[in-house]
Amino acid sequence: xxxxxxxxxxxxxxxxxxxxxxxxxxxxxxxxxxxxxxxxxxxxxxxxxxxxxxxxxxxxxxxxxxxxxxxxxxxxxxxxxxxxxxxxxxxxxxxxxxxxxxxxxxxxxxxxxxxxxxxxxxxxxxxxxxxxxxxxxxxxxxxxxxxxxxxxxxxxxxxxxxxxxxxxxxxxxxxxxxxxxxxxxxxxxxxxxxxxxxxxxxxxxxxxxxxxxxxxxxxxxxxxxxxxxxxxxxxxxxxxxxxxxxxxxxxxxxxxxxxxxxxxxxxxxxxxxxxxxxxxxxxxxxxxxxxxxxxxxxxxxxxxxxxxxxxxxxxxxxxxxxxxxxxxxxxxxxxxxxxxxxxxxxxxxxxxxxxxxxxxxxxxxxxxxxxxxxxxxxxxxxxxxxxxxxxxxxxxxxxxxxxxxxxxxxxxxxxxxxxxxxxxxxxxxxxxxxxxxxxxxxxxxxxxxxxxxxxxxxxxxxxxxxxxxxxxxxxxxxxxxxxxxxxxxxxxxxxxxxxxxxxxxxxxxxxxxxxxxxxxxxxxxxxxxxxxxxxxxxxxxxxxxxxxxxxxxxxxxxxxxxxxxxxxxxxxxxxxxxxxxxxxxxxxxxxxxxxxxxxxxxxxxxxxxxxxxxxxxxxxxxxxxxxxxxxxxxxxxxxxxxxxxxxxxxxxxxxxxxxxxxxxxxxxxxxxxxxxxxxxxxxxxxxxxxxxxxxxxxxxxxxxxxxxxxxxxxxxxxxxxxxxxxxxxxxxxxxxxxxxxxxxxxxxxxxxxxxxxx
Length: 758
Prior knowledge:
The protein has an eight-stranded mixed beta sheet. Strands 5-6-7-3-8-9 form a six-stranded mixed beta sheet, with helices on both faces. A six-stranded mixed beta sheet has the order 14-15-16-12-17-18, sandwiched between helices. The longest helix has 39 residues, at 253-291. Helix 9 (253-291) packs antiparallel against helix 10 (294-312). The protein contains 21 helices and 26 strands. It is α/β, with parallel strands linked by helices. Strand 23 (662-668), helix 20 and strand 24 (701-705) form a beta-alpha-beta unit.
């Protein structure tokens, strides 16, 4: 969406909305307005009704709307992607790109209508027909129709579906199908985006790209998410919903939590004062009742009325707090585990890993990079394919591996039975209640539980087990925010060593976990936690199995600490790799291949750094109009033209349209509420854009709406046209037709004859 609405434009609102699921009322008499430019995050525990509210806002089929209405702005387009989009049926033979392209159906229909109107213009369209066509064409441009396919392919690539056009949607996973529909919704030209858990199945880098993409969205965004860092990066408003009436907050999650904490302190203080006053009034009433005289009786009645009013005030409802989770461990310092020659499939090749007591390691990287495989190798779930592999644990070390699918619960075992085997029936019931698992789910086999129920039961089992090492694979999946914060608090305080694979940036920052990535089949450790990994500060320490002794000439001062500057670190890394590869007898072929890959990465980083510092390339086209330098560069189906040094204010787009009368260039200026050009600057910009259109695209005419830029001919209804013939005459490419003087006539009215020789 490109500036179709002002910031104050209402795009969607609810009035008296009431939602119900079965016998349970989710929402009552809810009034809410969402305006253009606002990005609302729905935050609350699982089952509170966030997905139901999103479906009601989208206008989809739901039996939960009992009363009230949802109203959308006239002409507003709504695009919605729910949690179950990946499980929806797909057409036979459809690719993942076809699923994404289906989300752009309104835009494709608008393009088809534009083509029909262009074909109907004929050879001599009327002014009214041209005006109507121009309005449709402007709408298609504003919705992003001209470059929608290019933007769709880019979104699919950035979201991890580079081969979407070749992938059969029916054979793809539910997460991949959901990502394809999300990519389509992002480029569909919608005014309102409704996204339910959009970060599911996305790695850290893709989540960052999606956050940046959505912060540039000019329409209205409403989304539900449990990723706190991502909410802070995207949301401008928060709707906190924990079972009572939703509460509105400005800002992201962190600011909302701070406001809620202050509110809880204020409510707690008011509750203490209320109870204190009740005790005072009750004591006063008892004393006055004992006195019995008339004046004392009047005071007693007043005290009784005030006491009744205080009792009528409901006590402050306590907001849902994260349960206090404790993870027991008896871990001493020293080395706990050592692994060498870890090899599995195409992801791990002769890797090594070591773990000490109390350490916290985060496995970070895109989906499919080998994080789960490494955890399963460490846990002994699978064996290394290399016969030289060694796997050593310190004797007596208790290891607990939590898989992202089964959560440590066998399919045929009920949660209460799994916990009772470790802590007894009474303690098991307390733990299941502490994680707020519904009572009816306690005795059901784990295979019949929903994803959220199984995640909560797995968290309770994690609390029941005593382990020295915790191997956790995506433990936050299907957990709501209170449970994620409970898990975070438990992992922060445990003495156990933790190796965790997750895409939750806030959890990794809270744990101060060091980062391990899997690159070219090896485990690479990074300096400075998550922030260090983002900076590219490689961490290699003597004593680690993955450490390689640096050559003596790798650094003049022997310091291999990264400088924090990518170019300097890349140069040192490349020189380091060159020294290693200079000795052909020291390394095996696999190690040499790994060092060659590291050298290639360092060289690419160097080239990227040089590109960043190189001066920006000048635009390909430049002209001058009325003393103003005018620049231009090609875009899809036209040109982008701007004035020199205007900081983006004076920009226009020339769209080239083929009609029955020839190739026409439409000059379109973007909308800017708070800035404007002077008339002379606008005239110079429009005439410069027209000049470039004539020279670069050889159009037959250039049209513009608004004030006359000078030299244009009036067309109709505020439109002006500059025809190629007039332009060529002005440029000197075509001479004016010679004009002969009129012949003299004699008095009789007949033309005079020329005499021979004259």
